[in-house]
Write a structure and sequence with these properties.
mainly alpha, Tetracycline Repressor, domain 2
Length: 200
């Protein structure tokens, strides 16, 4: 086995773990395999991660960060300005990109939520950008636009999160996993229509 000489070994091991997660999900990520692919000994990997769970946590953070980056891009591309129309456009964009990320990166999505610490614990923030904080910010836009009462804010955050996460999970791993992509996408649009209808 060759000795690792280039760059930061910890970062290389995480990157390798991310690639394994993308292709095989959380079950495919192991310290032994990431060490083998990085060209270092198993013991060298243990100098950076106490166990598999420690590695998975870091891989999950990468997954959360990439989801957050996709959410930021979607919100920024949504309707500019302020008011109810903008708030609803940003909420819809957030929901669509959340589900879209799950379908585009199923292994990384599964790993992020199987191994990441509580995403509602924002002290310290898990990632930058933080998907949960972005969702809260989007719902705050609904509050500011007068679509959601302040005392319903937390319940709305939970409703929006469980709606898109549940939809994605049912199609990835549940009884809807055989639904063709075009039908799945059309059903998502109808679901988001219903969320908007409930708000307006």
């Amino acid at each position: 086995m060759s000795t690792y000489h280039h760059g930061n070994l910890r970062a290389s091991l995480i990157d390798t773990g991310v690639e394994l997660a993308r292709s095989e999900g959380p079950g495919g990520v192991s310290l032994r395999e990431v060490a083998r692919r990085a060209g270092v000994s198993h013991n060298a990997a243990y100098r950076h991660f106490a166990d598999k769970d420690a590695l998975l946590t870091e891989v999950a953070r990468v997954g959360m960060q990439r989801l957050g980056e996709a959410m930021v891009e979607a919100v920024e591309a949504a309707r500019p300005g302020a008011g109810a129309t903008t708030a609803l456009a940003r909420l819809r964009a957030t929901g669509k990109v959340y589900v879209g990320f799950a379908f585009a990166e199923p292994g990384l999505f599964r790993t992020a939520f199987a191994s990441c610490p509580d995403p509602t614990d924002t002290s310290p923030a898990l990632t930058d950008p933080d998907p949960f904080a972005l969702l809260v910010e989007t719902v705050d836009g609904l509050v500011a636009a007068g679509l959601v009462e302040e005392d319903r804010r937390d319940a709305m955050v939970l409703m929006c999160w469980t709606t898109v996460h549940g939809y994605a999970t049912l199609h990835l791993d549940g009884p809807l996993r055989g639904v063709p992509g075009d039908e799945r996408d059309a059903a998502l649009e109808r679901l988001l229509d219903e969320v908007e209808h409930a708000l307006t």
